[in-house]
Each structure stands twice: as C-alpha cells, then as structure tokens.
Specification:
Layout lengths: L3 H22 L14 E3 L3 E2 L7 H15 L12 E17 L5 E16 L4 E16 L9 H22 L9 H7 L19
Helix pairs in contact: 2-3
Length: about 200
Amino acid sequence: MRNPRMLVVAALGAALLGCASEDVNYRPAPQILPQHITRLSLKPVFNKTQQFGLEDKLTLRIRDEFLRDGRYPLVHETDADGVVVVTLTRYILVPTQYDAVLTPTAYKLVILANLDFIDRRANRILWQEPNLEGIQTYVASTLKGGITEEQAREQVWDVLARQIVKRTVEGFGAVSGSSQRKISSEIPPSETQTPAVKPLNSTPY
C-alpha cells in the first residue's frame, strides 16, 4: 500500500508543475474594439506641422492600409460606429553627415503623429495614442544610392500607416508612441500645439 503522505506530495508537485506551465503559456487577451464597433471612418489627417502638403498622402496611405487589412470596412462618417482621427504634430529633418565643404550628405527624418479613436455611438473619445513615430535615415539624392526627401517621406507614411491600423484593430499594446522624455531629449520642441479633437454632436446617436 502506498504511503498517503507520498501521494499528497506527488499531487502537490503535479499541481505546481501545472501552474508553472500555465504561467509560461499565459498570454493576456488583446484589448480590441468593442463588439458594437463594426464599421470605421477615417477623418482627413490634421496637419499641425510647419511643413505643408503632408496630410493628403498620409490619409490615402492609411486608407489603403485599412483596406488591405480588411477587418473593419471604411465607410462615410455618418454610417460609422467609430472614427479614426490622426494629427501630425512634428516634422523634423536633421542633417546627420557632411562632406568636406560642410554640405549635408545624409539626413534623419522624424515625423510624429497623435492617434485618437472616437466611439461614435457613445459620443466619446474611446482611447488616445500620442506620439506615434516614423523615422527614416537616408543618403542625399546627390549621392549614389541616395533618395529625395519626398521619397523618405513615403517610407515614413508606410510606417505610420501600419502603426495606426495595427493600434486600431489589435488594441492596446499593439503599438506604443514615444515617451515625452525621449522626444524632449532628441527633437527640438515644435512651435505649434496639437488641437484637441473636435467634440461630436452633444446629441447621442
């Protein structure tokens, strides 16, 4: 006959091993959009930088990324359950290398954007993700293999569009913006302020 104490010890050991195995495999559930939100609308990007003409191309790139993802159809705002609002806040182009006569030969382009999501049914801002960051370093177009500032921007739009769509459809933690401390230490402060998202109609839908 087996020792009862040994059976108890064995049972406890198995339970502890099971808990450890569960901890290793534990993955928190993603915080995705509420179930009542099935259709989205994308507002034209707000551009609050001192660089003009950025908003249209980024808006189109984000729209293309949502269509490619396919999980949430994009519709007119009046038919949408949720509204995606993107605001460009900073555009910084910094030379990083120079030639013998101090002509810039390489640059670092940094573009920051704030992302807000409006629950249109509840008539409130559901969440905000500040300081999404697109960075592109590149060689000047005057050198072999170099690209133009416009081409560098196109690459940044790809990065930002993917981040915006991923944060929207996959939830909190899928993408995080840069910390204010990092921005303050690496990027000169912008003279412009990001406007608050315009409130929706006070009458609930």
